Amino acid sequence: MRIHEHPVLTYEKGREVEFTCNGEIVVGYEGETIAAALHAAGIKVLKHSIQNHRPRGFYCAIGNCSSCLMEVDGVPNVRICVEPLKEGMIVKTQEGKGALE
Amino acid sequence: MKHIEILIVGGGPAGLCAAISAAQSGAKVMLVERHDHLGGQLIKQTHMFFGSEKQYAGTRGIDISTILTDEIANSENIEVLNNATVLAIYEDGVITLEQNHKYIKVKPERVIIATGASEKSLAFPNNDMPGIYGAGAVQTLMNIHGVKPGHNVLMVGAGNIGLIVSYQLMQAGVNVKAILDASPKIGGYLVHASKIRRMGIPILTRHTVLKADGKDSLEHATVVELDERWQPIPGSEKEFDVDVMCVSVGLSPLSELLFQAGCEMKMVREFGGYVPLRTEHLRTTNPQIYIAGDVGGIEEASSAMVEGHLAGLAAAKSIGYEHPEFERVYVDYNEQLEALRAGHAGDHIRAGMSKALIKEASC
Ligand SMILES: Cc1cc2nc3c(=O)[nH]c(=O)nc-3n(C[C@H](O)[C@H](O)[C@H](O)COP(=O)(O)OP(=O)(O)OC[C@H]3O[C@@H](n4cnc5c(N)ncnc54)[C@H](O)[C@@H]3O)c2cc1C
Asked: Which of A2, B91, B170, B230 to pair with B183, CA 20 to 30 A apart?
C-alpha cells in the first residue's frame, strides 16, 4: 500500500521501526502517524463502536472526528491518525469507552 | 499566568497570515497549532493554486506553506507553540491549552480564531464502515504519508476537493472508478473536471450512494440515479466493486471555541454551518475575539490568507499597534478579497456574507 514513485512528491521517511497491534508485529516508519503505518500494513479496522460493536476505521485523518481511537501504551482514546509512531509501541483495539488507571 | 498581546489559534493559511500581519504591526504574537507542523490543509495540496499572483497563484499549496512558515520563523515578534491544542476560552478572557500533557493558562488581549473546518459525512446505510473516508483524509494519507488508501475508489462529490483528490489518486497509481454528484451540475472548476474526463474517469451527475456493503470493510457500493426532485429512480441502481469510498460533500466550520466564547452564532448554509457574526474588521460579538479563514465560513485558501492578514492588522490596531502603512495595505487586502469573491463563483460567498456581517457599532 506504500506509494513508491510519485510524479510530484518525494517522501521523507523516518527509520523503519517495529511495533505491535493486538500482539502482532507491524513495521512502520518512525514519526509517521500510527494510522498511516497500520493502513500501509493493511489493517483497516481500528475499533468497534461502543453500542453496536460495528467495525470502524479512521475518517478525517486530522484529529477531528474520533473514529480512530485506540489504546496506545496503556493510554485509551488516543487519536492514532495524529499520533506519531515510535519504536516498540503497544497498540490495541479498545473495547468500550476506556478509562485511565 | 502568561500575558499575551495576540493569541492566534490554528496555523493554517489564515492563522499564518494573521500572525505575519499582526507581527508586522508591532504586536507580540503567540501562534498555537495542535499538530507538530504549521500549514493546515495547505501541506497536502500538491496542485497549483488559482487566484492572483498576490495569493501565490501558480504555486503548489505545499510550497505556499513553506514560504509562510519561513516568514514566521524569521519574525522576532512571533512565538510558535506546536503540538498545542487550545482547549477552552473562559468568561474572564483566560484561555487554556494543552501541550505535551502540560496544561497552560494564558491571558491574551486579543484572540484570532483560525481553526479551519472538518469534513462532513453523508447519510446512507453502513456509512461508518472502514474503507469509507473523507476525501481530505485520503489526501493526507497519500500526500503526507505516502500510503495508498486502497485499490479501487468511488469518489462521492464533484466539487473541487472531489475532483482534485481524484486526480491525485490517479497520480499515486490508484484506480478511480467514478465520481458521483447528486446535483445536476459539476460543482468544481471546469479545468479540474476536464483533466479528470481526459483520464477517462466518468463523472455521474444526479447520482448518489444508496448503500455500502462488505464484511469488515467496504467491498461494494450501490449507487442510484436521482430524478428532478432528487428522488431515487427505481431500477437505475449500479454496483461498484470498490474497497475505498471518498466522501467529499463539503466542510463545516470548527467553531466550537467561538460558541464557548459566547460569540453570537448563526446557521449560514452558504458557509457550511454555524458561523460567528462578524464586523467588516472580522471582529465577533465578543470584542476580544477575531476570526479568519474557514472557521468563519468555508471558502478557500486564497481568501483564508487574505482574511488572516486583515484580522491580524485589525486586531493589532485595536490594541494600539498600527501597521506603518495601515491604510494602504488594509485597502489592498480588502480589494483582493473582493476580487476573489467576484463573479458567479463567488455568488454563494457574497450571499453568506450578507447574512453574517454586522455593523461595527454592535461590538
Ligand atoms: C482537499 C482540499 C483541496 C483544496 N484545494 C484548494 C485550492 O486549490 N485552492 C484553495 O484556495 N483552497 C483549497 N482548499 C481549501 C483550503 O485548504 C482551505 O480553505 C484553507 O486551508 C482554510 O484555511 P484555514 O487556515 O482557515 O484552515 P486550516 O488550513 O484547516 O487550518 C486550521 C488549523 O488550525 C488547527 N487547529 C484547529 N483547532 C485547533 C485548536 N483547538 N488548537 C490549536 N490548533 C487548532 C488545525 O490543526 C489546522 O492546522 C482545499 C481544501 C481541501 C481539504
From this structure: B170
Domain hosting residue B60, numbered range: 2-118+251-362
For chain A, give every domain's residue range: 16-92
- The verdict on B293 and B232 lying in the same domain is no
User: Is residue A100 predicted with pLDDT exceeding 80?
Assistant: no
Three-class SS state of B237 = coil
The CATH number of the domain holding residue B32 is: 3.50.50.60
Interface of A with B in 17-76 (CB under 8 A): 32-33, 35-36, 39-40, 44-46, 49, 54-65, 67
pLDDT in tens, B159-183: 999 999 999 999 999 999 999 999 9
Convert the pLDDT of each residue in B52-66 to its tens digit. Answer: 778 788 888 889 999
Most B-contacting residue of A33, A60, A78 (CB-CB within 10 A), to test interface: A60
Could you tell me the pTM of the whole model? 0.93
Which residues of chain A neighbour B45 with C-beta distances below 8 Å? none
- On whether the A16-92 domain is CATH 3.10.20.440, my answer is yes
Chain B residues near residue A82 by CB distance under 8 angstroms? 34-35
Which three cell numbers, joined as nine digits, stand for B305? Answer: 490568507
**What type of residue sits at position B35?**
H
Please check whether residues B260 and B276 belong to one and the same domain.
yes
Residue nearest to atom 14 of ligand 1 (CA): B300
Q: Is the pLDDT of residue B362 over 70?
A: no
CB under 8 Å to A87, separation ≥6 — which residues? A17, A18, A19, A30
Complex confidence, ipTM: 0.95
Whether residues B334 and B260 share a domain: the answer is yes
Tell me whether residue A61 is exposed, middle or buried, using C-beta atoms within 10 angstroms of its C-beta: 0 to 12, 13 to 18, 19 or more.
buried
- The closest of B287, B274, B337 to B314, measured between CA atoms, is B287
